[in-house]
Design goal:
- This protein is 51% helix and 11% strand.
- With 398 residues, the protein is α+β, with helices and mostly antiparallel strands.
- The structure holds protoporphyrin IX containing FE.
C-alpha cells in the first residue's frame, strides 16, 4: 500500500490520526514527496531525537533559508541564535543560562500567581457561552510569558501579534505572505526588546531579560543579538504551545465524558491527566532534524544530509509503546510522552506548561458543574507544526 502524506492537507489538520496510523503500519520510515523522511513510530522518533548526528541548525540549509526570506533576512539571522536551532556547545551555552529559571522550585513559585490570573480570567467569563481559547487558554500563557520574561503585560496583545507571525518560521507550510509578515514582525519586535534591554542594563529586576543581560557564560556575556533572539524564541515557546495543551486537552476530555467525570471525582488525577492529554493530542505535532551523518533505524539507514520529520502525534499513538493507544485514559501510568521532545532540546518549560494546564483544569472543574461544547465544526489553526483550535466554543454552568 502506498501512503501519501502531506502535512499541509486540510484533512490532516482536522484529524491527523488516521493517516498517522496508516504510516506507522504500512510505511513507518516514509520517504515523502516533499523531500523529508517521515518517522511515525515511537522508537524511531525517540532514537533520532537522541542521535548525535541529528542537527537542529536548519538555517544552514539554503532551501529552508530562502523560503524564509534568504540567509540575510531579519528572521533567518535571528534564528541563528535561537537555542532551539543550535547544536552542541553553542546550544549548551544558551541553555545553561536559561535553564536556571526553570528549576522545579522556581516554577513552583509561580503557582499562586498563575492561579490568581486563572481566577481573574474566569471571573470575567462568569457563566454562559464563551470561546475558551480567547477568554482563557490564550491570554493566560501570554500573560505568564510576559511576566516571566519581564515585558510589560499591557503590551501583551502586541507582543502576541508579533510572535504569532514569528512562530511560523518553523512551520513547513508557510506562504510568501507569511515570509513577509514574519520578517516585518521580527524587525518591530527586535526594536521593542532592544529598548527593554537598555533599561535592564541600568536597573536589573527579577526576570529573564535581566538574567540574560547580566549572565556570565564561560567568562563572557551574551551578545545583544543572542539576548534578543532568545527573548523572541522564549515568547513563542512559552505561549504557542501552552494554549494548545489547554485547548486540545479540554477538547479531548469533553469527547470522553467518563474521563472528565473521573477527574471531577478525583482531582488529584489532574496532573497525570495532563501527561496523558499531551500524549493523546500533542500541541507540537512535528519537529524536524537534518542529519550530519547517517543514522540506522533497524535495517534502514537514513543518509547524511537527510531531512527528517518526527511525528510526535503518531509516536504517542504507537501500540508498540502504549497499550490501547487510541483510548484516552487519565489513569494511564508510565506515559513518558515525547510531546515535550527528548534529547538535548527537551523542553525547558514542560513543568511550567503542565502546571498552567493543571491549574486551568482544576479551576474549571471546581467552578462549573457542567461544561458543554456548543459548536460542531471546530476550526483548527493553519500552522501544522503546532496543532491547536482557532476557537473552543463552550457553555459553562455553575
Ligand atoms: C505546554 C506545552 C509545551 C509543549 C508541548 C512544549 C514542547 C516543546 C518541544 C517539542 C520542544 C523541543 C523542540 C525540538 O526538539 O526541536 C520544546 C523546547 C523548548 N521549550 Fe517547550 N513546550 C511547552 C511549553 C513551554 C513553556 C511554557 C516554555 C517556557 C516558558 C517552554 C520553553 C521551551 C524552551 C526554552 C525550549 C528549548 C529547549 C532547547 O532548545 O534546548 N516550553 N518545547
Amino acid at each position: 500500500m502506498t501512503v501519501i502524506f502531506d502535512p499541509r492537507d486540510p484533512s490532516v489538520r482536522t484529524d491527523p490520526y488516521p493517516i498517522y496510523r496508516r504510516l506507522r503500519e504500512a510505511d513507518p520510515i516514509h520517504q515523502s514527496d516533499f523531500g523529508y523522511w517521515v518517522l511515525s513510530r515511537y522508537a524511531d522518533v525517540d532514537a533520532v531525537l537522541r542521535a548525535p548526528e541529528a542537527s537542529s541548525e536548519f538555517y544552514r540549509n539554503t532551501t529552508w533559508a530562502n523560503r524564509r526570506g534568504g540567509p540575510e533576512s531579519p528572521l533567518v539571522r535571528s534564528v541563528q541564535n535561537w537555542m532551539l536551532m543550535l547544536d552542541g556547545p553553542a546550544h549548551r551555552r544558551i541553555r545553561s543560562v536559561i535553564s536556571k529559571v526553570f528549576t522545579r522550585a522556581s516554577v513552583e513559585r509561580l503557582r499562586p500567581r498563575i492561579a490568581a490570573e486563572t481566577g481573574r480570567l474566569l471571573d470575567a467569563v462568569g457563566e454562559g457561552e464563551t470561546d475558551l481559547i480567547q477568554s482563557l487558554a490564550l491570554p493566560l500563557p501570554v500573560t505568564v510569558t510576559c511576566e516571566l520574561l519581564g515585558l510589560p503585560t499591557d503590551d501583551r496583545d502586541q507582543c502576541r501579534r508579533w510572535t504569532e507571525h514569528i512562530s511560523r518560521v518553523i512551520d513547513p507550510s508557510i506562504t510568501v505572505q507569511d515570509t513577509a509578515d514574519m520578517n516585518a514582525a521580527e524587525v518591530e519586535f527586535r526594536a521593542y526588546v532592544s529598548g527593554h534591554i537598555e533599561e535592564r542594563r541600568a536597573t536589573p529586576r527579577d526576570d529573564i531579560l535581566s538574567l540574560l543581560v547580566h549572565a556570565e557564560v564561560d567568562g563572557d556575556r551574551l551578545s545583544e543579538e543572542e539576548i534578543i533572539a532568545n527573548i523572541q524564541f522564549l515568547f513563542v515557546a512559552g505561549h504557542e504551545t501552552t494554549v494548545n495543551l489547554i485547548g486540545n486537552g479540554l477538547l479531548a476530555l469533553l469527547g470522553h465524558p467518563e474521563q472528565l467525570r473521573m477527574l471531577r471525582d478525583n482531582p488529584e488525577l489532574i496532573p497525570n491527566s495532563v501527561d496523558e492529554i499531551s500524549r493523546y493530542d500533542p500541541p507540537v505535532q512535528i519537529v524536524s532534524r537534518i542529519l550530519t551523518g547517517s543514522v540506522g533505524l533497524g535495517d534502514v539507514t537514513l543518509p547524511e544530509g537527510a531531512k527528517v520529520m518526527l511525528l510526535f502525534g503518531a509516536a504517542g499513538r504507537d501500540p508498540e509503546r502504549y497499550p490501547d493507544p487510541d483510548r484516552l485514559d487519565v489513569t494511564r501510568t508510565g506515559t513518558k510522552t515525547l510531546a515535550f521532545s527528548g534529547g538535548p532540546h527537551y523542553c525547558l518549560g514542560a513543568g511550567l506548561g503542565k502546571m498552567e494546564t493543571s491549574i486551568v483544569l482544576t479551576e474549571l472543574l471546581r467552578r462549573y458543574s457542567k461544561i458543554e461544547l456548543t459548536g460542531e465544526d471546530l476550526v483548527w489553526r493553519r500552522n501544522v507544526s503546532f496543532r491547536g483550535l482557532q476557537e473552543l466554543p463552550l457553555r459553562l454552568m455553575h
